[in-house]
Amino acid sequence: MIEGILVLLAGLSVGSFLNVCISRLPKGISVVTPPSHCPACGKVIAWFDNIPVLSFLVLGGRCRKCRERIPWRYPAVELASGVFWFFLWRAEGNEAAFWIAGIFCSLLLAASVTDWETGLIPDSVTLLGIGVGLNASFFYPALQAQGAGWAAVLQSGIGMLTGGCLIYVTGAAGNWIFQRELIQLQLEESMGGGDVKLLAMAGAFLGWEKVLLVFFTAPLLALPFALYGRWYKNEAVIPYGPFLSAAAVIQYFYGDSIWRSMILGGKI
């Protein structure tokens, strides 16, 4: 029980740091300096006003100094991170798999929220994730269902290339097919480079089989939101990163079962 509480608190703290990354990385600002401050008045936030979720509730969702509203994104990301880490701990135990899954899900959360807010996925998130995925595969071969580090990192590398190439080719095809629409919408491309690197990162953790499933699952998750945005809000573009991330989390935990069911069902 105590260990679970500590894991939850650790996850909340990770979420607090992710909020810093989400706010600063798209602007090219260091996540280390300056100290956390109110985006409205610029006042440095005291440590007792920077406690994940709790401070937001105590302050009524407003800055102590200027009383400007604090966006709901801050406690939402902290809470989501805490819940993620707690359930990962329940699923994996205090093992290497737990820490790898925690890092992977945290990176996906940061990429998703940043993409949703700004339309950008920072390279510092995805490139870090690719490095972590390759190294984790080498030192923990079970991540790729392999017995040797060299075989696991090979599987990770193939997954990285598969994920990145799939999105790149899809984007290139979309640019050619929808070139008139892209000009009308004043867009340079149908699929951003951030999405390419995000699926490459997912492939580094998942391997090529599961990243294939991510590639085909993400559009199904995105379709209802795309239809809603198109017909009810007259928006032709939605950020794709959150749906790639959601599909990656699903395949991380259930990809093996899905592959087995497909093979036993004679569908592949």
Key features?
70% helix, mainly alpha, 2 domains, globular, 0% strand, single chain, 268 residues
Explain the overall architecture.
The protein is mainly α. It folds into two domains: 94 residues, no CATH class; 171 residues, no CATH class. Helix 4 crosses helix 9 and helix 6 packs across helix 8. The model has no long low-confidence stretch (mean pLDDT 88).
List strands and helices in order, with pairings:
Layout: H1 2-24, H2 54-58, H3 73-92, H4 96-118, H5 123-139, H6 149-177, H7 179-184, H8 193-232, H9 241-264
Helix pairs in contact: 1-3, 1-4, 3-4, 4-5, 4-9, 5-6, 5-8, 6-8, 8-9
Summarize the structure.
The chain is built from nine helices and no strands. It is mainly alpha-helical and 268 residues long.
Proportion of beta-strand residues: under 5%
- In helices, the fraction of residues equals 55-70%
Q: What letter string, H or E per element, gives the SSE order? A: HHHHHHHHH
Biggest beta sheet attributes: none
Structural class comes to mainly alpha
Number of domains: 2
Identify the quaternary structure here: single chain
Distance between the termini: 44 Å
The Rg value, from CA coordinates, equals: 20 Å
Q: Report the total helices.
A: 9
